[in-house]
Amino acid sequence: MNKRALIRKILAELTSGLEAYVRAARAAHAEATHEQSKAENKYDTRGLEASYLARGQSKQAAEIEAAIAAFEKLDARTFGSGEPIDLGALVELESAGEQTLYFIGPKAGGTEVMHEKREVLVITPQSPLGEQLMGRKQGDVLQMNIAGARNQHRVTRVE
Questions:
Q1: Ordered alpha helix ranges (H), the chain
Q2: Which residues pair with 100 in a beta bridge?
Q3: E-assigned strands of 88-140?
Q4: Angle at 35 between CA 23 and CA 38, to 5 degrees
Q5: Which phi and psi (to 5°) does residue 87 adopt?
Q6: Residue ranges in the chain modelled with pLDDT below 50
Q7: What does pTM read for this prediction?
Q8: Residue 7 region, left (φ>0) first, then alpha (ψ -120 to 50), else beta?
Q9: C-alpha distances in angstroms, 93 versus 19, 107, 139, 152?
Q10: Which one, 68, 102, 125, 141, has least CB within 10 Å?
Q11: Cα 111 to chain center, whole Å?
């Protein structure tokens, strides 16, 4: 699988999300500072609520900017079959005949992209699954509790 192309797709997804948050933050800021948002009495909190919303959206935009910067610096190296899983690895897990692909990214866990007709989910080393995968190798078996049930997953591929 072309890892550089995968990282470009992740960057495109993050950039798209960033643009949406920036637009939303600007709109919320404009509403918060608009003269019609001025409190008419002590119970009128429209302006205050809009300012909280603008602040939260600006913070989210800053987090996405940091994720973009981290992915731009990420090395797209290929992992050998005997190498331990680390940051930048593309990992395929198999459970009950179903394969899932995960990319161990520096940030932006939960981001999903379609790559080469397969869905790839970005996870971070700090996530519960990421913690269990770090240092594992192709062929290793993981025991995970998902929704109260203990499931077995095998690492079928590390790139």
A1: 3-33, 46-73, 128-133
A2: 93
A3: 90-95, 98-104, 112-115, 118-123
A4: 105
A5: -55, 130
A6: none
A7: 0.83
A8: alpha
A9: 33, 20, 10, 10
A10: 141
A11: 4
pLDDT tens-digit profile of 82-94? 899 999 999 999 9
pLDDT, tens only, 100-110: 999 999 999 99
The amino acid at residue 5 is A
**Residue 42 one-letter amino acid:** K
Residue 126 has what pLDDT? 96
Report which residue type is found at 13.
Answer: E
Q: Tokens 């078996």 belong to which residue?
A: 141
- Least Cα distance to 66 among 25, 106, 102 occurs for 106
Look-up: residue for tokens 């935009």? 61
- Name residue, tokens 């948050």: 21
What was the pLDDT predicted at 125? 97
